[in-house]
Design brief:
The chain has eleven helices and 18 strands. The structure holds pyridoxal-5'-phosphate. The site of pyridoxal-5'-phosphate (PLP) has 12 residues, from helix 9.
């Protein structure tokens, strides 16, 4: 059966991106972020590949994501980055997950949930150094560490924090965050916590002093820049891992002056050859890109026209008249001939970030090996 569209996942590019990140990280382990379906790239495909490369720890956001990974057979340690609700403690223990914890209450709930005789629950204690989300202040950390070490069945594997402005290298706030984290590390040094970790993709590039004992790359591993602000020249080597490809399902000649698709937001100005492809906002193609994006057909950039609907979208292929047929590939994201359609173009048009675009590609689009 011909799929309406497919997201091709290129593991060779993923490997090269990881190699680049490892060059920057030096001897420290990479703990890749595979939350939100591996940033839309397909959780299982990505984690299987990471494990085959010897990566032994990955990060997700929610306990449910970690449980799916375990059920798919993943053996790596799984750090759960979001604050877990107390009722998730049973699943954390059962599936040997490593929650990020920023409160005594959760530590105590985890200790209670641990089954006698089972191995201790590994936790990562979170310092809020300026993200303002979860975690305790550097000053409160010694007390949290003391509570964790006193509790039965809890092992502190990590002390961690998260940046709020790492992708703005000119901002001095990241330096302030690093110093706050160093303070928390110094005040808890006696506890000999094996991993202090803080760096996301942008920090791996631009804040070398934040690399500590492990780093947590997300977006860069998928070959996308954390922001255009990243200063490090090697960010230019990143290769997007995901290509999104569909085909023309219909072609028709349309006279001048005809309104197309819902709301007739586009009207032909000349006799036009209009193609249809079977992708819409139900697949994660943002409707707000309507009449503002281009796709690749026949190795050329062709303007998308009319309102993007839930399932089908139009493209003006007049420039390809006589050289285009139903069934021809349409590249939404990726390379065709000498042309490249990059997810950053969409993000810029929509005044958002590439993260939102790739994580928004819906479950209707199969992720397949490219
Ligand atoms: C706690 C934490 N660490 C690391 C990352 C990875 O960030 P990035 O995708 O910018 O590398 C994220 C992602 O948002 C995160 O929430």
């Amino acid at each position: 059966m011909q799929e309406a569209s497919q997201a091709f996942i290129h593991l060779d590019r993923l490997t090269r991106n990881l190699r680049l990140l490892q060059d920057l990280a030096g001897p420290r382990p990479l703990w890749p972020c595979v939350k939100a379906n591996a940033y839309g790239h397909g959780l299982e495909i990505i984690v299987r590949h990471l494990e085959s490369l010897g990566i032994d720890t990955v990060c997700v956001a929610h306990v449910s994501e970690a449980v799916s990974l375990r059920e798919a057979g993943a053996e790596a340690a799984i750090v759960v980055l979001s604050a877990p609700p107390p009722e998730a403690c049973g699943a954390i223990v059962e599936h040997r997950l490593e929650p990020v914890v920023g409160s005594r209450e959760v530590l105590e709930a985890l200790s209670r949930a641990r089954v006698d005789g089972s191995s201790p629950v590994s936790v990562h204690l979170k310092v809020d150094t300026g993200m303002g989300r979860i975690g305790v202040s550097p000053e409160q950390m010694p007390e949290l560490v003391a509570r964790a070490t006193a509790l039965e069945g809890i092992r502190v594997r990590g002390l961690m924090s998260h940046f709020s402005l790492a992708d703005e290298p000119e901002s001095t706030f990241s330096q302030t965050q690093i110093e706050a984290f160093e303070r928390a590390c110094a005040e808890t040094a006696a506890a000999a916590i094996p991993f202090r970790h803080m760096a996301n993709s942008a920090a791996i590039f631009d804040w070398p002093e934040s690399r500590f004992d492990a780093v947590r790359p997300g977006i860069a591993m998928y070959g996308l820049r954390p922001s255009i602000g990243v200063a490090h020249p090697r960010a230019a080597e990143l290769e997007p891992v995901l290509d999104w490809v569909t085909r023309l399902t219909f072609l028709k000649e349309v006279p001048a002056g005809v309104g197309l698709s819902y709301g007739h937001t586009f009207r032909t100005e000349r006799p036009s050859l209009i193609g249809t492809f079977p992708v819409g906002y139900g697949d994660g193609l943002p409707r707000s890109l309507s009449n503002q994006m281009q796709v690749l057909v026949g190795g050329q950039r062709c303007p998308q026209v009319g309102t993007i609907t839930m399932d089908q979208t139009l493209v003006d292929v007049t420039a390809l008249r006589g050289r285009v047929e139903v069934g021809d590939p349409v590249v939404l994201i990726g390379q065709q001939g000498a042309e490249r359609a990059h997810v950053d173009e969409w993000a810029e048009t929509l005044a958002t970030i590439n993260y939102e675009i790739v994580t928004g590609i819906s479950a209707r689009v199969p992720r397949v090996l490219g």
